[in-house]
Amino acid sequence: MPQASGTPAAPQTSRASRKRYRKIVRFAWIFLAQAWWYELFLPRIGLRRFAARGRTARLQFLAQRFRVLAVDLGGLMIKVGQFLSARLDILPPEVTNELQGLQDEVAAEPFDKIREQTVAELGMPLESAYAFFDPTPIAAASLGQAHRARLSPALAADLGFENVIVKIQRPGIDEIVAVDLAALRRIGGWLSHVSLVSKRADAPALVEEFAATSLEEINYLHEAANAERFTADFAGDPVVEAPVVVWERSSLRALTLSDVSAIKITDVEALKRAGIDPSAVADELARVTFQQIFVAGFFHADPHPGNIFVTPVAAVAAVAAGSSSAGSGTAGSETARSDTGAGVKWHLTYVDFGMMGEISDPLRAGLRNFILAAVGRDSRALVASLGELGVLLSTADTDELERAMSALFDRFGGLGIAELQTIDPRELEAFGRQFGETIRVLPFQLPESFLLLIRTISLVSGVTSALDRDFNMWDAVDPFARTILSTNGRDALRDLPRQALAYGTTLARLPRRMDELATRIERGQLAVRTPEVDRRLRSVERSVNRLGSAIVFAALLVGGVFLRSTDEVFGTVLMATAAVPLLHLVVTLRRR
User: Fold this and answer.
1) What b-and-e string marks burial along 8-33, b requiring 16 or more CB atoms within 10 Å of the CB?
2) Which candidate in 75, 288, 311, 523 could, as Cys together with 176 as Cys, close a disulfide (CB 3.0–4.6 Å)?
3) Shortest CA distance to 259 belongs to which of 138, 122, 172?
């Protein structure tokens, strides 16, 4: 397969890195060869049904093989699997379902290497930086790991807390990330020349989106800045908490944060023992989520249960202390909020700000129209808003999508989780399959910001339903939709001059466009889609395929006969291969 121009070669690194690069690229070659054979070659010679028969099993096997490769290599490969598992817009469920369970859990790095890395990053002995540093990590991932520690007495006195969490990157992770991204960029370049892929997705753009997110994730100073921005956004909200960044003990590859471990948000029994109503937690989580999205425009894009704690305040901390889910070191954050959080018995405490989403002005306007259409159950307006958001290409035929959205609203609009559970699972499965097929046939690719948004709402929806099975996300978004609706009139007035100019321009062009339309009709150039025309076109296509099979058969047979005189083995192979197009020719002629 030709190399795309401008794609990087394997970086000049260690032998292990070159071996890693070759493993990733080899896997891609196997995938591309299989895709070419089953999705391009066999359908072209009339064996489309044969190729489609085992497609599901092939895709599942491919995803399983990738899981094995990702777990074996670690690094960014696990992140790639997690990234692809969320790309329901471009990948079939057979792939995304296999990748959803891919966890970023790997063996911990030996403590001696972690000590060396920490000392090199902070520029001081570990014993000087911390009064205590636990050599056993509380979590180990492919890019780094986290340890509990205590600050030195002097620094703890200045900050008002001593218990901290220290995140340290794995030694040599920079080289691994560089190798992985070089391999992914080359593969993306290859895919851009495969029409089967390029018609459905911009592979190089997807790789660059993933690269930008990954490079931000290994920049701990970027995560620290995100944490402080998030804290500032909710400075006046007594419910929301975040860890304090210890800048004196942080760098590009080492990050020290106040330890805010508390009750895991989905530990319903621990919440009840602490005197906290899980339903109230669900309500506040939804409110805070939509506050981030629609008001702050900066949201936590990885709000899974491990990244959100429920922290009891001093009034009920004694009750929660007996819970095995509660951690230590929350006194600093509780003291910081005890005076402003009067009447609030708990906080929502967010951690891990490596993955954040931001709402740009165009995205905010598109979301406004999207929410208004969703609340109003207006399928036409909703599809139009998807175009504004950059989800659908301008050439997309959205009639089928509009009909699918209408069916979705008519059947399931406004239903809560509990009500959905009373519906026949076969009905949900059938509708989901039909809706998914409609989405996948469109030129449909989610921008990264919109993908993060969908991921966030999906995760929060799962958490809220775990806290309260009767929770209805429609009710939670309704106040924000009303706020948007109330400001929509002011926005319309502000946009009135621009809209008037647009309408005037359209009216001015209308006579010319009508004249062009009449001319096209007179010349017979107007395209009309009818079932009869489609049927005839399919018949022509079959005839062309039969002709193609005949030509390929003749070429292989004649070429094999001539080559046998000089290369008996290769000539025989060509003659044997000629049986494939011959078989197709015979079968299709019998179907006439």
Assistant:
1) eebeeeeeebeebbeebbebbeeebe
2) 75
3) 138
In the predicted model, is pLDDT for residue 536 greater than 80? Answer: no
Q: Strand ranges (DSSP E) for 220-332?
A: 240-241, 254-258, 263-264, 298-300, 308-312
Q: What angle do CA 466, 414, 454 make, to 5 degrees?
A: 60
| pLDDT confidence of residue 320 | 40
Please determine, for residue 157, whether its predicted confidence score (pLDDT) is greater than 70: yes
- Is 329 in contact with 261 (CB distance < 8 Å)? yes
Residue range 562-572, pLDDT digits in tens: 555 555 555 55
Strand partners, 254: 168
* Residue 63: both structure tokens together: 């995803």
420-445: per-residue pLDDT in tens?
556 666 666 666 666 666 555 565 66
Place of tokens 């259409």: 373
> DSSP labels for 282-311?
HHHHHHHHHHIIIIISEEES---GGGEEEE
pTM of the full structure: 0.66
> How many residues does the structure list for the chain?
592
Integer Cα distance of 165 and 162 in angstroms: 10
Q: How far is CA 1 from the centre of its chain?
A: 28
Run of H or E residues at 84: helix 76-85
Closest CA to 133 of 170, 162, 109: 162
Q: Is 244 left (phi over 0), alpha (psi -120 to 50) or beta?
A: beta
3-class secondary structure, 163: strand
Give the span between the Cα atoms of 435 and 446, in whole angstroms. 16
Q: Closest Cα to residue 222, out of 355, 123, 79? A: 355
Question: Is 129 in contact with 256 (CB distance < 8 Å)?
Answer: no
List, for residues 231-271, the tens digit of each pLDDT value.
999 998 999 999 999 999 999 999 999 999 999 999 999 99
Give the relative orientation of helices 361-375 and 379-388 as an angle to the nearest 10 degrees: 170
Rounded to whole angstroms, what are the CA distances from 16 to 22, 106, 175, 255? 10, 19, 11, 28
Q: How far apart are CA 64 and CA 333, in angstroms?
A: 43
